[in-house]
């Protein structure tokens, strides 16, 4: 049963790189909360960051899948939270929430919820939209997490471009230059230029050290 006095008129956006999941969650929100306006639903984290940090496309709440291919959900949250405290961030996962809870908190989210329970997802969405936090993990308000992240030094990943993040994620998975180039539809020379740029930004001497520093960075 929905709690009384909860605000149910607000704007929502969704980012999830699984098309079926994106469609399902969009439909769930639309049918469960007809007063809510869904501003946009996208599959790429980089696109979500761009839209969520522009005043004319900024939602009240952004639902963020934590395991996306082009940009991890933690990076999406962190980039948005560093830029603004005006968007409440609710992390989502198909896996156990304990796996991503700490990442979500450190990245400035106001809560985390599993995708498997639609009723719980709606409860979490309403809680976050009304200024509360959701889930275990010491989650903070948007204002507090914005201050914390802005006051901290940028992580190594904050220094990289979206394409460099994509290249490094694939390199860390064990892909060779040719495979990375094919997957991203870019040239092998371009891949190597990105890797050289990343090596300089991370202060690494070689690829092994570069991957190790990448894996350790938030």
Automatic annotation (TrEMBL):
Residues 153-218 form the HTH luxR-type domain. Keywords: DNA-binding, Phosphoprotein. One of its GO terms (biological process) is regulation of DNA-templated transcription. The keyword ATP-binding does not apply. The modification 4-aspartylphosphate is found at residue 65. Residues 11-130 form the Response regulatory domain. InterPro entries: CheY-like_superfamily (IPR011006), NreC/VraR/RcsB-like_REC (IPR058245), Sig_transdc_resp-reg_C-effctor (IPR016032), Sig_transdc_resp-reg_receiver (IPR001789), Tscrpt_reg_LuxR_C (IPR000792), WalR-like (IPR039420). GO terms for molecular function: DNA binding. The keyword DNA-binding applies. PANTHER family: TWO-COMPONENT RESPONSE REGULATOR. This is Response regulator transcription factor.
């Amino acid at each position: 049963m929905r709690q009384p006095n909860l605000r149910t008129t607000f704007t929502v956006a969704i980012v999830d790189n699984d098309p079926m999941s994106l469609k399902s969650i969009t439909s769930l929100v639309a049918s469960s909360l007809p007063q809510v306006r869904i501003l946009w639903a996208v599959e790429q984290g980089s696109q979500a960051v761009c839209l969520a940090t522009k005043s004319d496309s900024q939602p009240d709440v952004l639902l963020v899948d934590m395991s996306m291919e082009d940009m991890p959900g933690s990076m999406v949250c962190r980039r948005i939270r560093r830029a603004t405290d005006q968007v409440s961030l609710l992390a989502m996962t198909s896996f156990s929430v304990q796996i991503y809870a700490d990442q979500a908190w450190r990245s400035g989210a106001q809560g985390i919820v599993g995708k498997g329970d639609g009723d719980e997802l709606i409860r979490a969405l309403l809680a976050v939209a009304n200024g509360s936090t959701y889930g275990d993990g010491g989650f903070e308000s948007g204002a507090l997490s914005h201050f914390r992240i802005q006051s901290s030094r940028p992580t190594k990943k904050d220094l990289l471009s979206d394409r460099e993040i994509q290249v490094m994620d694939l390199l860390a998975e064990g892909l060779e230059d040719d495979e990375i180039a094919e997957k991203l539809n870019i040239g092998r020379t371009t891949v190597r230029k990105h890797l050289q740029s990343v090596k300089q930004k991370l202060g690494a001497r070689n690829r092994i050290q570069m991957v190790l520093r990448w894996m350790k960075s938030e």
